[in-house]
Amino acid sequence: MKDEESGNRLGSYLRARRELVSPAQAGLPPGGNRRVPGLRREEVALLAGISPDYYLRLERGRDKNPSPQVLASLARVLELDDIERTYLLGLAAARPRAPHRKRPEHVPARVHELLAHLQIPAFVEGRAFDVLASNPMAVALSPRLRPGHNRLRSLLLDPEEQAFHRDWTKATADFVAALRTTIGDDTDNPRFVELVGELALSSQRFRTLWARHDVRRLAGGTTTVHHPVVGELRLHRDKLPVDDVILVVYYPDKNSDSDEKLRLLAALSPIESTEPAESTGTAHDSPADIPHPKTP
Is the pLDDT score of 276 beyond 80? Predict the structure, then answer.
């Protein structure tokens, strides 16, 4: 989280986003000697109707209080969507926060009961995509959905999880953008610091995506996965907030080919407990049951 640690998150975001807008997209001639990807600072300033010196101060963190009108102009030039525009406004409005108080993520007992009764893949995840609890069908769908695993870490570093997703490129982009959205101004959260630091060291794909500063919500939708036993499954995904955690369910269209395959998978899979194991302090303990390490 180098940009977050520097205290200039607004400037880092502006710089990353202007590098993603081509001159052609902005209605400018491509030019000959362009030493930077995307738009130059002075081009952003010109298109936004502000002085180049003022825009430079914004990017370098010398002015952290731009007016809503300036932000709206920058959002237009940088072609931000509604979620990205809201994120930009949040960066400009950010104020010093009180020191973060660690609080373990907790899965309510009633959610454990619900998981036990659901006959479709279902699991509970935390804000950093830690799997906190899951039912047998979720584990049958993917062993990486056992409590103690992290969905983003698995997606980026586990070859089996990479093969599981038919569109791995899109999945990784969506997950990383959703993580940045979730973090927001909670940049001193030890779990976020730990996860981002680990992935920045171990995954080039993560480093590339993180540098883009994409923000996105990862909510409901439809995905296609390839299961090693039953083959391709087309599943809908819903994410339902419960207290401080998220209940995630996957389900097929009724009487579809994927519905039949999911029932076959249920018949082939032994029923086993997916309750979090007793903590041993290893990397695969349930994040719901062990304290997160202190911020480095």
Answer: no
83-106 residue pLDDT tens: 999 999 988 876 655 555 566 789
What distance in Å separates the CA atoms of residue 53 and residue 45, rounded to the nearest whole number?
9
- Alpha-carbon distance of 37 to 65, in angstroms, equals 27
CB 134 within 8 A of CB 145: yes
Q: Which amino acid is at 268?
A: L
Judging by beta carbons within 10 Å of its beta carbon (0-12, 13-18, 19+), is residue 222 exposed, middle or buried? Answer: exposed
**Residues 6 or more apart whose Cβ sits within 8 Å of residue 226:** 163, 164, 165, 166, 232, 233
pLDDT tens digits for range 113-156: 999 999 999 999 999 999 999 999 999 999 999 999 999 999 99
- Nearest Cα neighbor of 292 from 194, 156, 209 is 194
Comparing 89 with 290, which gets the higher pLDDT?
Answer: 89
Lookup: tokens for 247: 């209940």
Confidence (pLDDT) at 99:
55
Cross-strand bridge partners of residue 247: 124, 240
Question: Do 63 and 92 meet the contact criterion of CB atoms below 8 Å apart?
Answer: no
C-alpha distance from residue 181 to each of 90, 177, 184, 215, 236 (Å): 11, 6, 5, 5, 22
What pTM, to 2 d.p., does this model score?
0.81
Question: How far is the C-alpha of 141 from the C-alpha of 100, rounded, in Å?
Answer: 36
Spell out the residues 6+ positions from residue 80 whose beta carbon is closer than 8 angstroms to its own. Answer: 17, 88
